[in-house]
Amino acid sequence: MGRIKTSENFSRKNIILNKAAALFKEKGYQAASMRDLAEIVGVEAASLYNHIKSKNDLLNEICFKVANKYNQKLSNIETENSTCLSKIESLLRFHIQEMVENFEEVFVSDREWKHLIEPYLTNFQTQRKTYRKRFAAMIDAGIKNKEIKKIDSTTAVLIMLHAISGIESWHRSKQKISGKALEESMITILVGGLKK
Fold first, then answer.
1. pLDDT for 134-169, tens place per residue?
2. Hey, what CATH class is 55-192 in?
3. Which CATH number fits domain 12-48: 1.10.10, 1.20.120, 1.10.260, 1.10.1740?
4. Is the overall model pTM greater than 0.85, yes or no?
5. How far apart are CA 50 and CA 41, in angstroms?
């Protein structure tokens, strides 16, 4: 066992977070151990604690890193001077690209957040609910502007986000279309289904 190998773009902590996300995705947060992580990273378990406080601290950092990125993107889109459909398309493309390019982190944030401890658990749940309400508000605005069919916006958000979380099966597929082709197909279906 040696030192954690870094690169110009990745600090030791970033490498640990990336490896932890992959491990939590593969084994599940509860089944994964710090010893497992140390083995994957290539250091003694005790050395990990020079960079992180605990396994829960890793989960906390992964979940909120993803949540903060999504909230920042949504805030940027909300301020764009464009149609509601264009804003929704931009947001959906972002979700799809994150599932394709940063799959482990997004998967862990989406599936393992329930293992966060307080006060982080309540904070994360509140952020999720608020995010979905803001997304639904874009759909409601599109309905009001007559860009979007009259639908229940909350249900639409849940269906779209659930469809995007299904990209997990694309990652497991042995014969798969490109990430870009996947994105275009999903946008055609999801945004096309909203259009009036």
1. 999 999 999 999 999 999 999 999 999 999 999 999
2. mainly alpha
3. 1.10.10
4. yes
5. 13
